[in-house]
Design brief:
The protein contains six helices and two strands; from the N terminus they run ααβααβαα. It is mainly α. The longest helix is centred in the last third of the chain and has 25 residues.
C-alpha cells in the first residue's frame, strides 16, 4: 500500500500537509457566503466561543502528551496546528449550531451525533494520511467525546446568548 505521508516538511514545495491545510481553508471560506444572512451573527458567536474552548482543550491535550502536531504553520509560536484547531473545527461547530433542527431532544441529539461522526472521520483521515496530527495516547472515540462536549457547550452558549429575553433587555429604553 503506498504511503500518503510526505516527510519533506521543509522548503516551499507543496506537501500533502500543505495541500490539506490549503484545502481546509478553501473549502471553509467557500462555504461562508452560503451561510444565511439571518444566521451569521449566531455563526460568529459560535465560531468565537468554540475557538476559545478548542484552543484550551487542545493545549491541554498536547501538554499531557495525548496529541502531537508534527507539521504546524507557526512552529516557533505554538505547539498546535493553527488551521485545524483555531479555524476549521470551530467553523464546523458554527455550521452545526446554525443548522440544528427544531424538534425533540432525540432529533437534536441525532443531528449532533451525525456532525460528531463527520468531524471524527475528517480528523481520523487527517491523522491517517498526513503528519498534521499524531495520536500519542489518544483514539478516535476521544475525538468524538471531546468534540461532543465542545459542540454541546457552544450550542448551549449560543442559545443562551440569543434567547429572546436577552435580546429584549438590550432594546429597552432607559427609565
Amino acid at each position: 500500500m503506498p504511503s500518503f505521508r510526505n516527510s519533506d516538511s521543509e522548503g516551499f514545495g507543496l506537501t500533502v500537509e500543505r495541500f490539506v491545510l490549503t484545502a481546509l481553508w478553501v473549502i471553509s471560506l467557500s462555504v461562508c457566503p452560503a451561510i444565511p444572512k439571518r444566521k451569521r451573527r449566531e455563526a460568529w458567536i459560535a465560531l468565537l466561543a468554540c475557538q476559545a474552548m478548542t484552543w484550551v482543550s487542545t493545549m491541554l491535550h498536547v501538554w499531557f502528551g495525548l496529541l502531537k502536531f508534527p507539521v504546524r504553520e507557526f512552529p516557533k509560536a505554538t505547539d498546535l496546528n493553527f488551521t485545524t484547531e483555531f479555524f476549521f473545527y470551530p467553523f464546523l461547530c458554527a455550521l452545526y449550531v446554525i443548522s440544528e433542527p427544531k424538534g425533540s431532544g432525540w432529533v437534536r441529539f441525532g443531528h449532533l451525533a451525525v456532525w460528531l461522526t463527520v468531524v471524527s472521520v475528517i480528523d481520523q483521515a487527517i491523522v491517517s494520511f498526513t503528519d498534521l496530527i499524531r495520536y500519542e495516547h489518544y483514539a478516535w472515540y476521544w475525538t468524538w467525546i471531546t468534540f461532543g462536549l465542545l459542540f454541546a457547550v457552544t450550542n448551549a452558549y449560543v442559545r443562551m446568548f440569543f434567547r429572546p429575553a436577552a435580546l429584549q433587555s438590550e432594546r429597552r429604553s432607559p427609565p
